[in-house]
Amino acid sequence: MLTMKSTPNHTGVKISGDYFDLDELNQAIYRVIGQEDQYYGYEGSRMRILGISYEIRHAAQGDRNVDFVFNGLHDHTMKQHGFIAPDKNIYFSTEILWPELIYAVIALKDFVKFYQEEKQFPLWDIHLPVISRFQSLVLDCLQGHVPQEEFAMILKSFNQPVTVNDYAIQYVDFLNLKYIGMTKQQREQSLSAIAMKIAVQDQDYTAFRNQVLAAAAPHKKSIHEITVQAEYPEDFEW
After folding, report:
1. N or C: which end of the chain has fewer CB within 10 A?
2. ∠ CA 102-176-201 to the nearest 5 degrees?
């Protein structure tokens, strides 16, 4: 079963599951976000979601964290059925920064909409429920770390018809780096504000986007092709 929990220092979210859980999620993501350049104005968002998919794929391959999780098998069950088996399953996991994951939840709304429009019977599609559960798990994890009244505002904002078409994805890097640089207490206090910034696209985002557009215009580049100058630290506490 796919699970999510905030990391010890609230820097991100630990996504855990067995091989099949993670592979199922990965396959659903690949299907829903479509092919390269399939959706004009969404290539940057697609790249960011693929970054998360990359981590999930490597987790499933055992390249990240390996955990042992109780599987519900008790001694009396083994005696009753006459066999001996491990009482723990192997789970794989990886950590994703909070701003990165929150943005993915928002961006996937647009991709899900496009995917549904291309399906004759989307209600019976096998991949859409997997994406929906992934989004719900992120929000459920977020709910456990922000005040209830603030979470209600976040949930309301997430339900607004805001598009990430031509989104300045560099803003996610800006929020990621800012969040990494905070103390644990500062992260706890600012998590809801960051979630709102991603969901609402406020004046700060608009000003940031205009700067990126100004940098892109002379070179006739797409907005997602402009790289940020700051670099991620090699090591930080999750």
Report:
1. N
2. 55
Beta bridge partners, 6, equal: 13
103 pLDDT band, cuts 50/70/90, is: very high
Give the mean model confidence (pLDDT) for residues 112-129: 95
Whole-structure pTM over 0.90, yes or no?
yes
pLDDT over 90, % of the chain: 79
- Strand order from edge to edge, sheet including 88-97: 3-6, 12-17, 88-97, 65-70
> Across the chain, what does the average pLDDT equal?
93
- At residue 136 the predicted structure's pLDDT band, cuts being 50, 70 and 90, is very high
Please say whether the beta carbons of 170 and 212 come within 8 A. yes
The Cα 218–Cα 63 span in angstroms is: 41
CA 121/CA 118 separation, integer angstroms:
9
Beta carbons of 69 and 188 less than 8 angstroms apart = no
Give one word for 34, left, alpha or beta, with left for phi > 0 and alpha for psi -120 to 50: left
What is the rounded distance in angstroms from the CA atom of residue 180 to the CA atom of residue 97? 8
The tokens 């091989």 sit on which residue?
19
Domain residue ranges in the chain:
3-225
